Each structure stands twice: as C-alpha cells, then as structure tokens.
Predict the structure.
Amino acid sequence: MNILTKFKNMTAEALRDHKKLIVALYIIFIICFAASWIVSADTINANQESIKQNLHPNPAASSSLPGSEGAADYFIHNEWSGIQTYVASVFFAIPALVVLVYNGINLGAMGAIFNMVLPGGGVQFLIYLIPHGIFEITATVLQSSAGVILFLFIFNFARAFIRTRALSDAYAESKKLLIHSLVIMIFSTILLLIAAPIEAYFSVPFSDFVMGL
C-alpha cells in the first residue's frame, strides 16, 4: 500500500470516528458566526460613519472586499494559527474551543461591517466568502477538532498509565487518538493550501462577476 493510499484510508477513518465532534464544532462555528452578525449589526449601523472613515480614509474611495494579500501570506497566517491552537490544546482543549468561537464571532462581525460598506451588502460578502470559505472554515474546524483529540489522547494515556503503570501499554491503548489528531491536522493543512490561492486570486473577482450579472 503506497503512502497516499494509506493516508487517504487513515484520514477517512479519523473523520468517520470523530464525525460527531467535527459536526458539533461546525455547528458551534455557524451559530457564533450568525449570532455575531446579528448582534453586531445595530452597533455597526450606529457608528457607520466612523467605521467607513476607518476603512476608507478617502471618502471617495470605493468599498472593497479583502484580497490584497498573496496566497502564501494567507496560508502561513492560517497554518501558523492552527499549529499554535493544536499545540496549546494540550491544556484541556480550551484553546481549540476558544479559537473556534473567536473565529466565528470575528467573521460574523466582518459580515456585519461589509454588509454596510459593500455595494452588494451581505450577499456580496457571502458570495466572496463561499469559494475559499468552504475549504478554510472546514480547515479551521478540523484544526480545533484535532486539538480536542490531542487532549483526549493525553487524558487517555494518563488514565491508562495510572492503571497499568507501563508507558508502552498506556501508549498502545491511546496511540490511535494521537494518530487521528495528526492525520486531521495534515488534512486541514491540505485544505488551507487549496483555500489560499482561491482567496487571493479568485474570491473577489468571482463575487464581482456574480454581483454584476
């Protein structure tokens, strides 16, 4: 069995075994995104002039979506954040949950802002978000899932060691969780590699094209 086939099978197994966790975290992200958009709307509308000035110091400047960074910049930023979240999740998986919630809230607030400043409003922002967001948001959820699974590995390993008093036995009982967490992190990296060029070079022209139809 070659490496790619083995990785494919391991990824499928990891996603299947932790499907409930991944779906639950995805739902949490969507709830945070939607709630933040709704809650932020009133505050943003009340301060729309100052927000517009901060976004565009020149009043004549047209409103535009993100997209000025290169693909490498997007990938490095997202991947480094994911690695930090993954490693920090050894602390009871709290960072994995906090970062997921923060990203959902932050993206929802951005939606409320661009709903005000874009010619096409929130619809244009969503059209912009969809092409790369399918991959990037999924990668974000998977990174948090990997962090939670990493903590579960540590917890199960410690519990097994207390029971058996043998490092090898404790690791043998728990290693599947560690492997799953690493495989899911690698898979999320692949998704980010796909998302980065889409966000840098496709999402903005795509949203402009759709809104111009």
The helical segments are 3-17, 19-46, 48-55, 71-88, 94-117, 121-164, 167-201, 203-212. The first helix runs from residue 3 to 17. Residues 57-62 have pLDDT under 50 and may be disordered.
